[in-house]
Design a protein that fits this description.
This protein has about 240 residues and is an alpha+beta fold. About 50% of the residues lie in helices and about 15% in strands. Helix 1 crosses helix 3 and helix 5 crosses helix 6.
Length: about 240
């Protein structure tokens, strides 16, 4: 039992050491971050705190290959390559999860910051966008809407299903989808144009059904008249 305990302790220590070592070797400036785990009073380093710093660093570290496009203002679309991202959830104040597709994040690295900031989270699958949310599920900042237009046009998005779910900013999201519909060829669920088209389609369906019923009634009337006429002719 003692041997097993020592082995487990060794593996845990080595895993921690390996993470810390990778962190310190990944970027020379990480030694500045590591100082946060140093206690000047005891002149000792808290290894647990240092490991936490290292883990957080790697969670925030971005893969350059997942930057799908960078704009002149410095912001960029980043493919999170997952349907569930706790880091995005923490940054944006929403659930950071949508099993309908892959999450994409509009991000920007502010001057003097080590980590980027997130501004938009979208759920994308094939030629559909299911959600477009800013922080706390509100509408994204208006100055970012053209970046959404770029994404829709560049990736051939045909349908946008953003209807304001989980949001208290319905008006802001409607203004955004109206802007996007005017600047792309995608079809939008929930905007005025889509609702009008849906109502017109329902009206056409009702009209077709009504005409079908009228035709059926007229056919029955014609049949009854024919039978009646035939009966009259027979009596004569």
């Amino acid at each position: 039992a003692l041997d097993n305990y020592l082995k487990a302790a060794w593996h845990n220590w080595w895993a921690s050491y390996d993470t810390i070592g990778s962190f310190l070797n990944d970027d020379p400036t990480n030694y500045e971050l590591a100082k946060e785990a140093y206690d000047s009073d005891t002149m000792r380093v808290d290894l647990d705190e240092l490991e936490t710093i290292a883990i957080t660093y790697f969670e925030n570290k971005e893969d350059p290959d997942k930057v799908v496009h960078q704009f002149e203002d410095g912001s960029y679309w980043y493919d999170l390559d997952t349907s569930n991202c706790p880091l995005e959830a923490e940054r944006m104040g929403h659930c950071g999860s949508d099993n309908r597709g892959t999450l994409y994040s509009l991000r920007k690295l502010k001057k003097g910051r080590r980590d980027s900031s997130s501004y938009i989270t979208m759920t994308v699958r094939d030629n559909y966008i299911y959600q477009i949310k800013g922080r706390n599920n509100a509408a994204p900042p208006e100055e970012t809407w053209d970046h959404i237009v770029w994404f829709i046009n560049e990736y051939g998005i045909e349908h946008v299903e953003e209807t304001g779910e989980y949001s208290d900013d319905i008006e802001g999201l409607q203004e955004m989808t109206q802007y996007l519909s005017e600047n792309t060829s995608a079809k939008f669920s929930g905007n005025a144009e889509a609702r009008i088209e849906e109502i017109e389609e329902k009206a056409r369906e009702i009209d077709d059904l009504y005409k079908g019923l009228i035709d059926e009634v007229l056919e029955n009337v014609d049949a009854e008249v024919s039978i009646y006429c035939s009966a009259e002719d027979s009596e004569e």
